[in-house]
């Protein structure tokens, strides 16, 4: 059910620049069902990227089948079909379509199907040698995308194209990218939740402003999010100027602005992983922006410091906009509010599961807990949210989480010094429920509206304070 005025919100994530890489060190290769070394776990920074070739695509294909959590039961035809579609589309985009660029018949035999695919692929690319590199890239990208997994990535290094911008971005809410990974959860209208500087501030954009179009395309059609929103969440090499049509509801003003990505002075507060303060003179408030190393320890130290000399009625843990991070830190944070519990299950395709249990060496906080969540709370953030809800360690207030938690991703090094990342296990909540694509519903649904944002109101936080004062 859609609620009028509920926020899609606006949050952006830009690819960070890379320093000069060091030579790789990797673990021993394993034997794949293809009989060759598919991929290795990386150790240290990878060396400079070399071209992607048919051999690299083969390596990635068998790496997925050997290591992805459902690789053993996966119908590999779906991967090869997606790769071939991307290959032919790229030929067409370049005006170079070929009469014999037809999909070979696939039977479901993983090795036999690869052999048929490879023969067709090499025959095609041999006829357009000048396109060989880009055809390989789009083919491998499509194969990984065909997994339909929000924790599956193919990460490339190497040089950037001359017109690629690699910097801070547009100056709008650089907090999370959950909406980009799961656009289906977005609710109209799309509005600005933070202006941190740069092009957005120079253009006079304010918190609460509604974005009515992105590059002349509506972000919502008949209440459903469109792909135009993805332009606000660029990934390498897609960071480009973006043209917005903006509405300021308080005045009715409409205008257009083009935001060019650029470096700008960041607000230091927005860069702090942990922020804390007392609210209403006695309630401990801690905001956690990501599960970085030692983040749980920093949260617990902040709580200890703020409660010293008083008995607070409770803790508000603000996880809104938290895009995830370390599952170890997520487990440690949950452990401060409950011992002897299973916080999650990590399961293989055959149903066998490993348990994630609380770390009972972590000292209990011993105070009532309210957790603030939103549609930008993803991955490890959802691990915490589901554990708090299922184990009845506290209450969730805000909106449903992102549903971007297929499982903890593992990295695998390919021979061209690019990396594949995907889960070896699938994440389930403490009640063995699927959270991926579903999200964790709050105990109290309190959405932020564009008018709330413009007026500086925080209804979810207000509700949390009311609950703790009861």
Short précis:
With 470 residues, the protein is α+β, with helices and mostly antiparallel strands.
* CATH A-level architecture of the domain at 271-469: Alpha-Beta Complex
Main β sheet profile:
6 strands, mixed
Question: Alpha-carbon distance between the termini?
Answer: 30 Å
Classified by CATH, the class of the domain at 271-469 is Alpha Beta
**Count of extended strands:** 19
* CATH fold label of the domain at 271-469: 2-enoyl-CoA Hydratase, Chain A, domain 1
The helix fraction, in percent, is 25-40%
Q: Would you identify the regions where 5 or more consecutive residues have pLDDT less than 50?
A: 1-31, 174-178
- The number of distinct helices, counting runs of at least 4 residues, comes to 12
Give the name of the CATH superfamily of the domain at 271-469: 2-enoyl-CoA Hydratase, Chain A, domain 1
Q: What share of residues are in beta strands?
A: 15-25%
Strand order of the largest sheet: 9-10-11-14-15-19
Overall residue-averaged pLDDT value: 87
SS-based structural class? Answer: alpha+beta
What is the general shape? Answer: globular
Radius of gyration: 24 Å
Protein topology:
Layout: E1 25-26, E2 42-43, H1 54-67, H2 77-93, H3 110-127, H4 132-145, E3 153-155, H5 178-181, H6 198-202, E4 210-214, E5 220-221, E6 224-225, E7 242-248, E8 253-259, H7 268-271, E9 274-279, E10 283-288, H8 295-307, E11 315-318, H9 327-335, E12 342-347, E13 353-357, E14 369-373, H10 380-390, E15 395-398, E16 409-413, E17 419-423, E18 426-428, E19 444-445, H11 450-455, H12 459-469
Helix pairs in contact: 1-4, 2-3, 2-4, 8-9, 9-10
């Amino acid at each position: 059910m859609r609620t009028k005025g509920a926020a899609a919100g606006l949050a952006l994530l830009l690819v960070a620049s890379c320093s000069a890489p060091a030579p790789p060190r990797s673990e021993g290769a394993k034997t794949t069902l293809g009989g060759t070394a598919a991929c290795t776990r990386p150790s240290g920074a990878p060396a400079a990227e070399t071209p992607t070739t048919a051999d690299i695509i083969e390596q990635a294909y068998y790496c997925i089948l050997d290591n992805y959590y459902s690789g053993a039961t996966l119908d590999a035809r779906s991967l090869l079909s997606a790769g071939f579609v991307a290959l032919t589309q790229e030929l067409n985009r370049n005006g170079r379509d070929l009469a014999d660029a037809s999909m070979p018949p696939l039977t479901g035999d993983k090795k036999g199907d690869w052999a048929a695919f490879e023969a067709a692929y090499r025959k095609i690319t041999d006829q357009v040698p000048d396109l060989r590199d880009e055809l390989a890239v789009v083919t491998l990208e499509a194969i990984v995308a065909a997994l339909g997994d929000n924790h599956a990535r193919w990460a490339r290094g190497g040089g950037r194209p001359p017109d690629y911008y690699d910097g801070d971005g547009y100056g709008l809410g650089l907090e999370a990218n959950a909406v980009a990974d799961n656009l289906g959860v977005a609710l109209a209208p799309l509005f600005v939740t933070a202006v941190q500087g740069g092009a957005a501030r120079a253009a006079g954009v304010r918190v609460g402003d509604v974005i009515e179009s992105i590059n002349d395309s509506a972000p919502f059609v008949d209440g459903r999010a469109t792909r135009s929103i993805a332009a606000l969440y660029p990934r390498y090499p897609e960071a480009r100027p973006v043209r917005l049509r903006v509405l300021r509801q308080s005045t009715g003003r409409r205008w257009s602005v083009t935001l060019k990505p650029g470096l700008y002075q960041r607000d230091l507060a927005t860069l702090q992983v942990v922020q804390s303060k007392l609210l209403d003179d006695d309630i401990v408030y801690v905001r956690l922006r990501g599960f970085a190393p030692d983040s749980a320890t920093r949260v617990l130290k902040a709580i200890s410091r703020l409660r010293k000399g008083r008995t607070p009625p409770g803790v508000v843990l603000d996880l809104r906009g938290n895009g995830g991070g370390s599952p170890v830190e997520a487990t440690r944070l949950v452990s401060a509010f409950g011992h002897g519990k299973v916080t999650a299950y990590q399961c293989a395709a055959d149903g066998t599961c490993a348990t994630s249990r609380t770390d009972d060496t972590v000292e209990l906080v011993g105070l009532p807990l309210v957790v603030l969540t939103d549609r930008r709370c993803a991955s490890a953030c959802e691990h915490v949210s589901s554990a708090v809800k299922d184990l009845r360690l506290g209450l969730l207030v805000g909106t449903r989480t992102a549903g971007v938690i297929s499982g903890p991703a593992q990295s695998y090094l390919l021979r061209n010094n690019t990396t594949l990342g995907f889960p070896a296990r699938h994440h389930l909540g403490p009640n063995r429920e699927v959270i991926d694509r579903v999200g964790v519903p709050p105990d109290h649904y309190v959405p932020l509206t564009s008018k709330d944002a413009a007026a500086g109101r925080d209804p979810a936080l207000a509700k949390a304070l009311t609950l703790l004062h009861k």
